[in-house]
């Protein structure tokens, strides 16, 4: 739960990415295999944009997993904001 | 039957059947046969908060056979109903801004609103700039004796009998306003501060009973404590003959908020400002309601001038800079008690004068001759106080200085060009885009002998419409860096809006799950802008949600929170390039949202932030 009026000092994560066979977790995004679908979840940069989710292909998941694509490439490919 | 089959008609029967059916389907010789034809109706409006109909525009329609209508048809104007701006209420006129059905060939037709002229708006802008500069200089010369006396003697420039009334919050009020509007000397502002200090000390010296009378006793309490009779003042007289029983002094905060929004020169903010004036008491509120509800031509001109020029930024700033030079001794001379009673009435007349100017003064019967009557009444009372005569001259000169608004508005309407496509048996909808941002005016144009006032067309960060289209049309990820189309000074000026900090509205779950207030290139707004929004919403979360475009209840249920980032924690604050993850289809270059609010982006990784408590959150 967030706490009002208290300054929060989040750790700097850089481009750290945690991977398993079925998931990738970045500093402000993740891709997770859920019910046979790869769900890309990200913190939208829009003002008041919220956390958004979009299904991506298995090939995309593998490309990001292998470092051939970035999360930004996914956003461009699927026209996400 | 010819082939012996019972199903096949004989050739003669077919010919007879065709002859019988032909007259009903063939139509005029030079038009499309009816089965191949359809109808198009054009609906035109502006993309503003009021969805103002776009009326009296020449329409051109071209279908696959050629030009069907070449400007001879116009979108329906108010006069088509035998009405003019501000006439008595009628049922909603739902066909305004539309055309009658136009016959076109099946398939796609191209619909264009055709310009009807050019050059008049630019000429009007030149006239307005020169007239406002002349008004500014003349008005400040007239007020100079009062300003000099106030600078030199402060409260001592006000006779003792009127002395005590100055402290009724007026000095504090003026100080804040003078900071906003500018055009006032530092010495005059310092004199306000001294006056406020005097009042604070005066109040502190009173007994608890007297303090209670001042705080809760209303005018009579103030009279009891200050020992000043309101009856002997001109203020009461003035208030009576201008607005009858309606005392606008209690609505000064509403009126000043409206003036600020009108001075923003931003279409939707100006419309909201005018809407807020419906809440004024009695006839004044009803007058604004009738002007808005039954207005058309003046509203279109307001929309166009606000969208396309910096005229309103200057019109309202220049007048208010002059008003800020009406120092307490100026008001004291006319009012006896320096209470600013007359100022709300003056400001209302100024707003109405601007509205009247859109249609040349005579286009709105409700307002015809109104300013002249107001000025005559001021002059009639000038025998009691010289400053009333000065005020009359200033108000009258302002009315003359803004006459060019009508020329600008008409010229901009004549320039309207818009295009859309539609299929037969459909509606060709034209929603004319309007700019929703303000232009910062040069503060050096507000004081005595200030620089030339130049009324110009709005260009987002100096960008032409073509350049904006080019940048927006470039695929995300390839858009140019703002430094390639904005000067360093423009960028620095824009980012200075964030000197008090930045605010971002973000889901609480993002903080819980990812420990960050945003991604790289997350959008933020200036803290001052957010504070202003909260203030205008009265801390009401539902209102804030609405103004920020958030889902209803998202702030009150904690789903969304506002976080503040202090300037020392900024990480790569910059003008958005449109390549950011959060840049959506509404993004525009130049650092402003499509709604006209300033914005920037920063990289949030490791950026400290504080979750703000808003209203009853």
Terminus-to-terminus distance of chain B:
86 Å
Described by strand count, sense and barrel closure, the largest sheet of chain A is: 5 strands, antiparallel
Question: How many structural domains can be distinguished in the coordinates of chain A?
Answer: 1
Q: Span from first to last CA of chain A?
A: 26 Å
Radius of gyration of chain B from CA coordinates: 30 Å
Secondary structure category of chain A: alpha+beta
Largest interface, Cβ cutoff 8 Å: A-B, 33 and 51 residues
Q: How many distinct beta strands of chain B? A: 12
Which bin fits the share of residues in helices of chain B? 40-55%
Radius of gyration of chain A: 14 Å
Biggest sheet strand order of chain A reads 2-3-4-5-6
Q: Structural class, from helix and strand content of chain B? A: alpha+beta
The percentage helix of chain A is 10-25%
The domain tally of chain B reads 3
Mean pLDDT of chain B: 82
- Report the sheet-strand fraction of chain B: 5-15%
């Amino acid at each position: 739960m967030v706490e009002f009026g208290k300054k929060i000092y989040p750790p700097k994560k850089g481009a750290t990415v945690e991977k398993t066979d079925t998931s990738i977790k970045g500093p402000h995004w993740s891709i997770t295999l859920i019910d046979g679908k790869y769900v890309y979840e990200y913190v939208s940069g829009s003002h008041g944009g919220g956390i958004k989710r979009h299904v991506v292909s298995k090939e995309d998941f593998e490309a990001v997993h292998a470092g051939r694509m970035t999360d930004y490439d996914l956003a461009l490919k699927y026209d996400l904001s | 039957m010819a082939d012996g089959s019972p199903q096949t008609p004989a050739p003669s029967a077919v010919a007879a059947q065709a002859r019988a059916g032909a007259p009903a389907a063939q139509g005029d010789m030079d038009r499309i046969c009816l089965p191949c034809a359809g109808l198009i109706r054009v609906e035109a409006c502006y993309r503003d908060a009021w969805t103002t109909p776009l009326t009296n525009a020449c329409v051109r329609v071209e279908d696959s056979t050629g030009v069907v209508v070449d400007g001879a048809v116009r979108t329906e104007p108010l006069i088509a109903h035998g009405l003019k701006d501000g006439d008595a209420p009628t049922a909603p006129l739902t066909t305004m801004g539309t055309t009658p059905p136009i016959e076109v060939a099946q398939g796609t037709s191209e619909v264009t609103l055709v310009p009807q002229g050019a050059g008049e708006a630019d000429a009007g802008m030149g006239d307005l700039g020169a007239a406002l500069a002349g008004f500014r200089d003349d008005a400040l010369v007239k007020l100079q004796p009062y300003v000099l006396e106030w600078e030199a003697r402060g409260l001592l420039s006000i006779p003792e009998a009127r002395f005590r009334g100055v402290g009724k919050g007026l000095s504090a009020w003026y100080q804040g306003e003078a900071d906003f509007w500018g055009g006032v000397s530092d010495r005059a502002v310092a004199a306000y501060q001294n006056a406020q200090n005097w009042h604070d000390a005066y109040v502190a010296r009173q007994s608890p009973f007297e303090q209670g009378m001042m705080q809760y006793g209303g005018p009579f309490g103030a009279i009891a404590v200050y020992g000043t009779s309101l009856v002997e003042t001109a203020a009461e007289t003035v208030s009576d003959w201008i607005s009858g029983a309606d005392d606008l002094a209690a609505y000064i905060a509403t009126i000043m908020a409206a003036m600020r929004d009108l001075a923003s020169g931003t279409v939707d903010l100006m419309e909201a400002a005018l809407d807020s004036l419906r809440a004024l008491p009695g006839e004044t509120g009803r007058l604004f309601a009738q002007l808005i509800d039954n207005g058309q031509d003046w509203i279109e001109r307001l929309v166009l001038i606000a969208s396309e020029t910096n005229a309103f930024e200057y019109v309202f700033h220049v007048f208010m800079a002059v008003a800020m030079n009406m120092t307490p001794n100026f008001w004291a001379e006319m009012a006896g008690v320096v209470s600013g009673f007359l100022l709300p009435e003056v400001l209302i007349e100024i707003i109405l004068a601007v509205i009247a100017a859109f249609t040349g003064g005579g286009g709105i019967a409700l307002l015809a001759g109104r300013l002249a009557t107001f000025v005559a009444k001021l002059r009639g009372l000038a025998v009691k106080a010289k400053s009333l005569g000065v005020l009359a001259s200033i108000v009258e000169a302002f009315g003359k200085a803004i006459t060019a608004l009508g020329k600008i508005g008409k010229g901009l309407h004549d320039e309207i060009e818009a295009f859309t496509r539609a299929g037969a048996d459909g509606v060709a909808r034209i929603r004319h885009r309007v700019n929703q941002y303000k232009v910062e005016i040069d503060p050096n144009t507000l004081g005595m002998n200030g620089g030339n006032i130049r009324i110009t067309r709005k260009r987002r960060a100096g960008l032409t419409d073509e350049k904006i289209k080019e940048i927006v049309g470039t695929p995300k990820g390839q858009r140019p860096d703002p430094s390639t189309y904005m000067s360093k000074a423009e960028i620095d000026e824009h980012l200075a809006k964030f000197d008090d900090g930045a605010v971002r509205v973000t889901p609480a779950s993002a903080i819980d799950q990812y420990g960050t207030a945003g991604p790289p290139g997350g959008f933020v707004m200036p803290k001052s802008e957010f504070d202003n929004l909260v203030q205008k919403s009265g801390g009401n979360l539902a209102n804030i949600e609405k103004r920020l475009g958030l889902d209803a209840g998202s702030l009150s249920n904690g789903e969304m929170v506002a976080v503040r980032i202090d300037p020392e924690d900024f990480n790569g604050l910059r003008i958005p390039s449109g390549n950011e993850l959060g840049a959506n289809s509404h993004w525009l270059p130049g650092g402003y949202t499509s709604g006209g609010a300033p914005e920037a982006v920063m990289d949030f990784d490791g950026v400290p932030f504080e979750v703000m408590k808003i209203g009853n959150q």
